[in-house]
Amino acid sequence: MELYQSIYENTKHMTVPLDDTQKANVIQLIPRLDQKGQDLLFFLIRMYHNQQSQDITFQLPYTATADKSDSTSKDIEFDLNVFPTQLQHMVFLFTRMHYDYISYESIRK
Hints:
single chain, mainly alpha, two-stranded antiparallel sheet, 4 helices, 2 strands
């Protein structure tokens, strides 16, 4: 919860959506995140949605789609363009931070 609150506070002043370069960076980094990072990213998206809508639902937020082609697959696809501006920046900030963290950890070991 502290992670969410920190990222939320650091992005609440953002009023301009991500530019194409930033979006491309997010799209490039998400598949490189470890499972924990991908789980945390979904958590951030879900928390933001629940906080903004004041409605807890079991539906995927922001017109997300789940890959059902493989019963073991947990792939969920989102369209960044559908996200509110602040959430776009939260996703950008988190993916950069987590990718930098796992890169540092792999070098450290």
